[in-house]
Specification:
The chain is α+β, with helices and mostly antiparallel strands and 107 residues long. It has helices spanning 2-23, 59-65, 86-91; strands at 30-34, 37-40, 50-51, 54-55, 70-73, 95-98. The radius of gyration is 14 Å and the shape is globular.
Length: 107
């Protein structure tokens, strides 16, 4: 129980920290690596926070506009509650690949 609570709490605190840094213009939410590859933070399905790349809640739609066809999600299942569902990704024309990972508390 304690480990699950700590992982969830750690994720939420880390996410809020990244959102604040994005809002202040200190980080991008995603970056273009090559013409076919972007690397970024977890795409949020709901967020009114704005930064240099627009509203965070608009990021999934922007990925579609950038002609991105797939997203690889390297998150634990409980972290995916803030992202679009598989059906929502498909509606955008984007396939989501889910990689199951384990993140020890405190990593």
């Amino acid at each position: 129980w304690t480990a699950d609570f700590m992982k969830t709490t750690s994720f939420r605190v880390s996410l809020q920290y990244k959102i604040i840094r994005y809002k202040k213009g200190q980080i991008n939410w995603f970056d273009k690596i090559t013409d076919n590859l972007y690397l970024g933070a977890i795409p949020l399905k709901k967020s009114s926070t704005s930064g240099s790349q627009g509203r965070l809640g608009d990021v999934p739609g922007k990925l579609s506009e950038l002609n991105i066809k797939a997203v690889i999600s390297c998150n634990e299942e409980f972290e995916r509650v803030v992202t679009p569902s598989l059906a929502e990704w498909e509606k955008l024309g984007i396939h989501q690949y889910r990689v199951r990972i384990f993140q020890p508390t405190g990593s």
